[in-house]
Amino acid sequence: MGSDDVSPRIDRWGEPVLQDAPIHPPRMLRVRVWWILAVALVAIGSVAASSALKRKVVASFAETCRQAHEARDWPALEPAAQRWLAWEPGKAEPLLYLAEATFETAQYDRAAEALGQMPDGDPRTPKALLERSSLLFDVLNRPIEAAQTLERAIRLDPRHVEARRRLVFFYAFTLQRRKMVEAAYDAIQYDCDLPETYVYVISRDWMSFANGYDQNTKWMQSNPQEELFLVARAIYRITARGLDSVDDPREDGPRAPDGTPYHRQVAAEYLERFPQNLEILAYHLERGVTAGDIDQVERLLARAPKASADDNRFWRCRGWLHAARDRLEEAEACYRKALEINRYDWLTRHQLAGVLRRLKRFDEVQTLERVSKEGKDLRRDILQLENVAKVPAEILARMAQHAANCGDLLVADKLAQRIAQWSPVWAAERAKAQGKPGPESGGR
Questions:
Q1: C-alpha–C-alpha distance, residues 239 and 380, integer Å
Q2: Domains of the chain
Q3: d(CA 346, CA 338)
Q4: CA-to-CA distance for 399 and 418, rounded, in angstroms?
């Protein structure tokens, strides 16, 4: 039979094949399959052997680190921790050993770097980040990075009391007022509140520190052109030294040929240099209001950035401007908007009461003036404290009542619950638990 006459068969997939086609795979194919299987088995065996070797090596490094740590042999601990990290990158234990070894040998940059590499999933990381923030705030003088480190610690552990305390201090020192208040409310909601937490809530407009100028001067040395520190430093210098005092004005440098005091020259320079900065703009606005300069206030409000819409001080100045031009309904609306943003704004309450008198609507006036005076008196007494972290029980009780009178029931109720807990014994335990402090307040 010729090749053209070969009858086809049907294989298992329904395809025609020649009758004399081999049914089984050829020998070469079988050899290749067995070769692949053999290689796979060898690879599996190699992985297992490698894994066993790794465990043995890592155990050896861990023991070396443990012994060096117990002996406080920092020069031996550092390379051992580094070799361990080479085998297990991102592992918490060798990172902690490396951080301690480099810290004890005054390699603070490397200690901060090691602590910053701690993995998010390890329960020791929030505490390690707190230690990192201490290095960054203090010896390394990198405060913005320190604040970012604290923010990370709080994301990992929302109930980290000390991280929240330090972060709100930083916001307060650098006049990041909105962040300060938001951080304080977050602390209250997560049961991380301390006596000073409530001070930050009610002092959004007026909190100041006797050492605010010095602290921002120190931080500025690490970044001389940082807007955050330049502006805060200038504002603190003016307030702490009473440079704008009407009763006892003081000189801070050479006056300009036109007689402008030196500190106002600096403030004017920063207004042009940082046109979006709310703090320097608010300073000039408040000076304009104090001087009764309607045109200046109008010019400054016209250049206010969008962010000013969330700042009660700008709404208060708008209210003042409308009231000065006898647009009393518009003034009332602006004052109420200011109180919606910051219900503790005692000055706005006082000015709103004045507008309502002019409108001959007296139903709210007495309450507005009473709560305004209450807030003003608290401001005076708090600014006289030696340290904002040491608020007397009597002032805390007044703050709780003031919060209730301002309609802030969250703060009023929580503070009322807390006052009994903040005994001398509790305060001592808290101080012991805090360890190294972050930026501290001098109170003012």
A1: 14
A2: 56-202 (1.25.40.10)
A3: 11
A4: 12
**Whole-structure pTM value:** 0.82
Tell me the residue type at 129: L
Q: Span 194-214, mean pLDDT?
A: 94
Q: If DSSP codes are grouped into helix, strand and coil, which group holds residue 245?
A: coil
> How would you classify the pairing of strands 8-10 and 16-18?
antiparallel
CB-based contact 188:411 (threshold 8 Å): yes
Which residue, chain included where needed, has tokens 């609507």? 361
Nearest to 207 by CA among 222, 197, 192, 220: 197
Q: For residue 388, give the nearest of 207, 125, 148 by alpha carbon.
A: 207
72-97: average pLDDT: 94
Greatest Cα pair distance in the chain: 128
pLDDT in tens, 246-263: 555 667 788 888 888 888
pLDDT of 25 > 70? The answer is no
Angstrom CA distances, 157 to 25, 162, 406, stand at 62, 11, 32
pLDDT for the residue numbered 122: 95
Half-sphere exposure of 404 (CA within 13 A, CB side): 10
Contacts of residue 388, Cβ cutoff 8 Å, sequence gap at least 6: 196, 199, 207, 209, 382, 441, 443
> Measuring CA to CA, which residue among 341, 342, 14, 334 is closest to residue 351?
334
